[in-house]
Amino acid sequence: MKRTGSAAVVALTAVLALSGCNVASLGAYKSGTQVTAAQRQAFEPGETTRADVVAELGAAQRVKQVGDETHLVYDYSEIRHFGSNINQSTRFRFDSNDTLLGIETGKGPATNPLTQG
Q1: What is the DSSP secondary-structure string of 62-115?
Q2: What global pTM score does this model have?
Q3: Of 1, 78, 83, 87, which is most buried, counting CB atoms within 10 Å of its CB?
């Protein structure tokens, strides 16, 4: 009986891997807004507006005023059963006219011990 269960798990894993399913993210706990590289590349400094970013990504988790600049910060964390966890933050910087100045990515806030490191 135990062999049948193990064989089923191996077969299911093989099917998922061969189907192109991202096994690392299977059943992962996800929080926040993931900003992909393709999304970041679509935003043009000097052309993209704050409204464009919010229309594409939704409301930011954090909004900060830094001098004359407004920063929209999108945090994302993913706690996986397999592989490395993800903890990232993407910051969009806008001038006083709400025109994009630049985009910065880095490690997100450490709010969960599983995403620290």
Answers
A1: EEEEETTEEEEEEEEEEE-SSS--EEEEEEEEE-TTSBEEEEEEEE----SGGG
A2: 0.70
A3: 87
